[in-house]
Every structure is written in structure tokens, then in C-alpha cells.
Specification:
Distance between the termini: 23 Å
Helix content: 25-40%
Strand content: 15-25%
Strand order of the largest sheet: 1-2-3-4-5-6-7-8
Oligomer: single chain
Largest sheet: 8 strands, parallel, barrel
Number of strands: 8
Number of helices: 6
Structural class: alpha/beta
Length: about 180
């Protein structure tokens, strides 16, 4: 796996610089807010801060913004099944990643030419009744040629269980800063 591809990812739904001010620069930040399209000004300001801190910054579901502002990459959520991503329209360091919850979605993400696939949820979360756990996670990761990232329910208590997986890295919403920093 290429050394420029981060192993750790932090999901945010607000472009709040205070939220990431003390974040470890090994953690890439993914902005995902599907209710409100972000303003170009806010994205630029946030991206400039991330550049200064050497934090990779990706945006979810707004491919046009990611390209226009020359962000570090683009995140394709599991529900996005579009195939409009042409390899020659972005640079070689532009990272396209996506998420999947099952084998069908995993294959779609591979066809979308993602470099990493977030498999989720690996552990039980407040929002999910169904979760993969270690065995299902490993079985799904084996059918993919693309490296996988563990997502969902990861906390300081169960993070050690990830050593039993085929995960390239991990991601989270609430506990990632505690685990990596």
C-alpha cells in the first residue's frame, strides 16, 4: 500500500477548525454532511488549515468540489453507486475511498476504482443493530482486492480486537482522536 495513503480517518459533519486543532496528522479528516452542501469559502478555509497541519482532507459526495479545490481526495458513501469518476480527471495523489456494508456494495466500490473501502460497522454502535464483528469483517475483506478500513463502534476498549482483522487501518466518528492521539 502506498505510504501516502493514511491508515486512520476521522469523520466530521461540521467544518469546525477547533474540532481538529489538536488532531494527530496521521489521521485524515473526512467531511460528510448530506443535508447541507458546504460553501466553497468554508471548504477552502478548512482545507488551508489542514494543509498547514499536514492533515489530509477529503470531502464526501461532492466530487465537483473536491476536484475544483484540489482537495486530497473524495469519499463515496455506500449509497452512492454512480460511476462518473474518470481516472484522468484528477491527479495521481487524489485519493478516492468508499464505504460498504456487504459483498454487493463492496463490489460496487471496487468498480468505482476506490483505493480503500471502509467496511462497517465492525462492532455494535448506538445506531446499528446489525454489525459485522471480526469473522464477517475478515470474510468480506478477503473477497476484495482493495484494502479495507475498519469503521463503526471502535472505541478504546475494543480497538485491540482489530489486530485479529485484515484491516489496513481504522476510522471513526467519536473515539478516533482518543485512540490515535
Amino acid at each position: 500500500m502506498h505510504k501516502l495513503i493514511p491508515k486512520y480517518y476521522y469523520f466530521i459533519d461540521k467544518l469546525d477548525i477547533e474540532e481538529i486543532k489538536n488532531i494527530n496528522n496521521k489521521i485524515a479528516v473526512i467531511y460528510r454532511n448530506y443535508q447541507n452542501k458546504p460553501s466553497i469559502y468554508e471548504i477552502k478555509k478548512f482545507h488551508n488549515f489542514c494543509k498547514k497541519k499536514k492533515i489530509k482532507f477529503l470531502v464526501s459526495n461532492y466530487f465537483d468540489i473536491a476536484l475544483k479545490l484540489n482537495l486530497d481526495g473524495f469519499y463515496i458513501p455506500s449509497f452512492n453507486t454512480k460511476f462518473y469518476f474518470k481516472k484522468n480527471c484528477y491527479g495521481k495523489n487524489f485519493l478516492i475511498i468508499g464505504s460498504a456494508h456487504n459483498a454487493k456494495e463492496l463490489k460496487i466500490k471496487e468498480k468505482q476504482n476506490v483505493k480503500l473501502i471502509f467496511l462497517s460497522p465492525i462492532f455494535k454502535t448506538n445506531k446499528s443493530e446489525n454489525y459485522l464483528d471480526i469473522i464477517k469483517f475478515n470474510n468480506l475483506s478477503k473477497i476484495s482486492k482493495t484494502p479495507v478500513i475498519a469503521l463503526g463502534g471502535i472505541n478504546p476498549v475494543n480497538v485491540k480486537k482489530l489486530k485479529m482483522t485484515n484491516a489496513f487501518g481504522l476510522s471513526g466518528i467519536s473515539h478516533i482522536k482518543k485512540i490515535i492521539n
